[in-house]
Design goal:
- This protein is an alpha/beta fold.
- The chain has 2 domains: about 5-45 and about 290-395, Aspartate Aminotransferase, domain 1, CATH 3.90.1150.10; about 50-285, Aspartate Aminotransferase, domain 2 (3-Layer(aba) Sandwich).
- The protein is about 40% helix and about 15% strand.
- The protein has helices spanning about 5-10, 20-30, 50-60, 75-85, 100-115, 130-135, 155-160, 185-200, 240, 255-270, 275-285, 290-315, 340-350, 375-395; strands spanning about 35, 95-100, 120-125, 140-145, 170-175, 200-205, 230-235, 250-255, 325-330, 350-355, 355, 365-370.
- The strands form 3 sheets. Strands 2-8-7-6-5-3-4 form a 7-stranded mixed sheet, sandwiched between helices. A 3-stranded antiparallel sheet has the order 9-12-11. Strands 1-10 form a two-stranded parallel sheet.
- Helix 6 links the parallel strand 3 and strand 4.
- Helix 4 (about 75-85) packs parallel to helix 11 (about 275-285), helix 5 packs across helix 10 and helix 12 (about 290-315) packs parallel to helix 14 (about 375-395).
- The relative contact order is 0.18.
Length: about 425
């Protein structure tokens, strides 16, 4: 049979994390105790009252039938109530809300719904991979815009828009940011909305970590900004806030035209999440919120333990203000080898798995991402292992290794 070229697949790079994941699997198969800080996969159980609502609902055989791709009315009303309670934003649950199978599915399907081959989309880099690759799969050209501490992102976006042909149709924002943990205030979001309205662009905002914050005011929603609904749609997920990653439930909110486009495409490709999951998600949003505060405190304590412990070991890492990650610059003696080779060395010698920064884009090189998804006892062990690793290499500097040849980005959580 002749070789068939799958053009959309050709636009996707190799899985950057595959080598680290394969090493981790082999090490565990050989009985080694690998502490996994690589994937942002929450390790704590879903709160009991949410599980109880699922269990109660699943016993009703009527909920075993097809659901609604746009989401059951009760959940859309609960999502609207959450936005009014948390952000002071009123949403029409019929026109401005759409339930998704987690934010990742929603982001990908929105890209397919609103992006055509030849379009240009502005994406801060480093970034969560679906942000650029949802649009790349849809046929767009992505302009990567550097995102880093001290970089004027609005100036970078303006420069990229000015030099893009054709003019960009959309830009992606993700604050609190995965992987860099950077946050944005209302002033920045107001500038972004004014910029998008002037250039007749859409904004796709991802606030998956809006409830995982540690200092200062709670992160804002772009929909708080006057005029934002004219240009912006926002995605949110229950995965991190309520420890529900495997449940695959989230939503999109905002611009009615974008919501309608997403809902229309979804009507062709899915029947929505299993109804008992949607009922349980409604209970999560409408029920007691002390579980959210407990999740936030758990990540804060883990952050402090890891960052402070590594600082004492000689590896200074900025303390994140939000998210469940640490964005760690590679220690100087190892920097020349690149993030993939360093991640492999750390796994091999310290038995700690991390995500190489190059997996999040070209501007992620020089960093690794650590997810706060192991308990405090395991994090203490990770700190001890890394301290011994660093001490060994202070006495014996790492041999020069060629920088790993990889293409940036690959799907990960």
């Amino acid at each position: 049979m002749r070789e068939i070229v799958f053009h959309r697949i050709r636009r996707l790079p190799p899985y950057v994390f595959a080598e680290v994941n394969d090493m981790k699997a082999r090490a565990r198969a050989n009985g080694r105790d690998i502490i996994d800080l690589g994937m942002g996969n929450p390790d704590t159980p879903t709160p009991a009252h949410i599980v109880a609502k699922l269990t109660e609902t699943v016993h009703n055989p009527r909920t075993h039938r097809y659901s609604s791709s746009r989401g059951i009315p009760g959940l859309r009303r609960a999502l609207s109530a959450y936005y009014e309670r948390r952000f002071g934003v009123r949403l029409d649950p019929e026109r401005e809300v759409c339930v998704t199978l987690g934010s990742k599915e929603g982001l990908a399907n929105l890209a397919l719904a609103i992006t055509a081959p030849g379009d240009t989309v502005l994406v801060p880099n480093p970034s969560y991979p679906i942000h650029p690759f949802g649009h790349i799969i849809a046929g767009a050209a992505v302009r990567n815009v550097q995102l880093a501490e001290g970089v004027d992102l609005m100036a970078e976006l303006a420069h990229a828009a000015e030099h893009s042909v054709p003019p960009p149709t959309a830009m992606i924002l993700n604050f609190p940011n995965n992987p860099t943990t950077l946050t944005a205030d209302r002033h920045f979001l107001a500038e972004a909305v004014a910029f998008a309205r002037k250039r007749e662009m859409f904004i796709v905002s991802d606030i998956a970590y809006a409830e995982i914050y540690f200092e200062g005011e709670p992160p804002p929603s772009i929909l708080e900004i006057p005029g934002a609904k004219e240009v912006a749609v926002e995605f949110y997920s229950l995965s991190k806030t309520y420890s529900m990653p495997g449940w695959r439930i989230g939503f999109a909110a905002g611009n009615a035209r974008l919501i309608a486009a997403l809902a229309r495409l979804k009507s062709y490709v899915d029947y929505g999440a299993f109804t008992p999951i949607q009922v349980a998600a409604t209970a999560a949003l409408n029920g007691p919120q002390d579980c959210v505060a407990a999740v936030r405190e758990r990540y804060r304590r883990r952050r402090d333990l890891l960052v402070d412990g590594l600082a004492r070991a000689g590896w200074r890492i900025p303390k994140p203000k939000a998210t469940m990650f640490c964005w760690a610059p590679i220690p100087e003696p190892f920097r020349s080898m690149g993030s993939l080779a360093f991640a492999k060395l750390l796994l091999e010698e310290a038995e700690v798995a991390v995500a190489p920064g190059i997996g999040f884009g070209e501007y992620g090189e020089g960093y690794v991402r650590m997810a706060l998804v192991e308990n405090r006892q395991r994090l203490r062990q990770a700190v001890r292992n890394i301290r011994r690793f660093l001490e060994r290499h202070r006495r014996r500097p790492p041999a020069a290794r060629p920088r790993a040849e990889v293409r940036p980005h690959a799907p990960t959580a």
